Amino acid sequence: MIEVRDLTRKYGNHIAVNDLSFTLNDGHIYGFLGPNGAGKSTTMNMITGCLAATEGTVRIGGYDIFEEPEKAKALLGYLPEIPPLYTDRTPREYLRFVAEAKRVPKPEISLQIDEVMEKTKITEVADRLICNLSKGYRQRVGIAQALLGKPKYIILDEPTVGLDPLQIIEIRELIKSLGEDHTVILSSHILSEVQAVCDEVLVISDGTLLACDTLENLKERFRAAETGETSLEEIFIELIKNPEQFSAPGEETEQKDDGKYEEKKEGEERSESHSEA
User: Fold this and answer.
1) Given 25, 46, 166, 253, which residue has the most CB atoms within 10 angstroms?
2) pTM tops 0.85, yes or no
3) Taking the CA atoms of the chain, what radius of gyration do you get in angstroms?
């Protein structure tokens, strides 16, 4: 389980990520969906411990990413938007370097390298220089390094950016296969990508979490809100433009003076931040 609570990142007076709170359960593929500049990459960098938070906590499998980084990061495999590749090495050489950096036991290194190369289908280019590989193959090498160490959680930031249509289809199929053994979180500004591979979606805009649910449940919630939208594209545009009109069926939402929302359901009373909407 990944637990994010009150996560905030400020750059001077600019709030890049604003009080995010959510929980991701094991065994699913989650999509972080939002327009460019929404705060997706900043959030992922904080979740993986690559960027300090101004406020808030992130727990990976029970370990605080900021207080117990080694234990938490041992559960993570991360592919940033720009793959961290050494292009003067071959995939095999590079993956060995990463395996050693991740402290994979020496007797297991060669076996794990073979396994991740086979899973990502880069075995045939294993001994070519990375600088001579296509962008699609480079992306596969990036995913392969994320799989080393057998992490429980795989985090992929915009994994299909810059790929051609065939490469996009292949990477999506690869991501779906990873979901059989890992919990996967991927960010994207492309709705069709999230639709194609994800079980649940987190919608983020201007650093604020607008929704966290399955695509089907989001459709039902919009139908209940009588917005008139019929397609997912229209729904997400409306959600980003007018988040204040959106609430789940059966909820009565009133804004409090402190800027938070009080949500009342039958048999239950609770307070939660707008970022958990």
Assistant:
1) 46
2) no
3) 20
